[in-house]
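Q: what sequence does this backbone want?
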């Protein structure tokens, strides 16, 4: 009889599938499987779409004769279509961190507070801090992986465009999407959403506040972007030909200059009846262009990313500090 009982117990044990994830890892994957699946689908579909668009772009360029002939001789309609596709995709990816903050970060804790799950979990054997660390870590890793993969694929597409990629990278979504900037921005917006959810305790209110605050911060960051590095300065004769270099850099300001280096605004003497004589009287002999070159892009991106990471760390630190002082 004991043999039969042991045999039946052994068969039941063997029939139960073994979970690869255990403990809090299993809980995070189970509880937030919708967000996990949504991010996975967005990453796969976004990557596939970019790969397709890149192939179509190269086919169109090769059909137009590039690289056999200079880019300036390629059909303008082809170039405009490529530029529009890059801009549209870049703008969509630049908005992705905001979506992650609103739909991943904001409901992460606020939904548990509304449903009573937070109180239930923190009364179990798992400490409140450990549970929060797992929740925040899951959301931040998911946001970083999603934006990181899509940013890498978009950078691959953008570099493949060669001379047809935007020269004004400073004001183009490529700055926000590629390199470390997209990942760092997603970490900030997701952390902002998590903290908003913990403070407001209501999902809809948390989502709305995250959208507004993250949008304001990203607009402010775009305004401060030119201050991430010092522009380089190029002077050339007033009556000379404009250097070809300036067609391939980001020109942020232009001046008139005297032989001693004194600068005058670009509109100096513009409304005078004899502008050339007016400038000559002021001693103006040169034109000056302040610009950023493409080799400055990576350093400026890392500086911007560092700022967003510091903000994200401060938000997570505030969340953990609050959780230790009062119940969720």
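A:
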């Amino acid at each position: 009889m004991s043999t039969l009982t042991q045999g039946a117990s052994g068969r039941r044990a063997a029939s139960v599938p073994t979970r690869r994830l255990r403990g809090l890892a299993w809980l995070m994957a189970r509880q937030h499987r919708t967000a996990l699946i949504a991010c996975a689908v967005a990453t796969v579909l976004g990557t596939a779409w970019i790969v397709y668009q890149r192939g179509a772009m190269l086919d169109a360029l090769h059909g137009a004769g590039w690289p056999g002939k200079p880019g300036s001789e390629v059909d303008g309609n082809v170039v405009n279509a490529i530029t529009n596709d890059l801009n549209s995709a870049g703008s969509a990816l630049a908005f992705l961190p905001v979506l992650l903050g609103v739909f991943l970060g904001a409901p992460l804790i606020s939904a548990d507070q509304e449903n009573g799950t937070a109180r239930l979990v923190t009364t179990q054997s798992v400490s409140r801090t450990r549970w929060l660390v797992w929740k925040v870590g899951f959301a931040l890793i998911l946001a970083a992986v999603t934006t990181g993969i899509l940013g890498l694929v978009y950078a691959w597409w953008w570099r493949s465009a060669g001379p047809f990629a935007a020269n004004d990278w400073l004001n183009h979504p490529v700055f926000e999407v590629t390199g470390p900037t997209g990942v760092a921005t997603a970490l900030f917006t997701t952390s902002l959403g998590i903290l908003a959810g913990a403070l407001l305790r209501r999902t809809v209110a948390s989502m709305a506040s995250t959208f507004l605050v993250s949008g304001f911060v990203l607009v402010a960051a775009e305004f401060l972007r030119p201050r991430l590095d010092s522009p380089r300065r190029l002077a050339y004769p007033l009556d000379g030909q404009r250097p070809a270099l300036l067609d391939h850099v980001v020109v942020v300001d232009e001046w008139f200059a005297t032989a001693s280096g004194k600068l005058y605004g670009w509109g100096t003497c513009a409304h005078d009846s004899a502008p050339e004589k007016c400038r000559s009287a002021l001693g103006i002999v040169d034109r000056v262009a302040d610009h950023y070159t493409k080799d400055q892009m990576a350093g400026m991106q890392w500086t911007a990313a560092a700022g967003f990471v510091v903000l994200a760390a401060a938000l997570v630190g505030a969340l953990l500090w609050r959780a230790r002082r009062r119940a969720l």
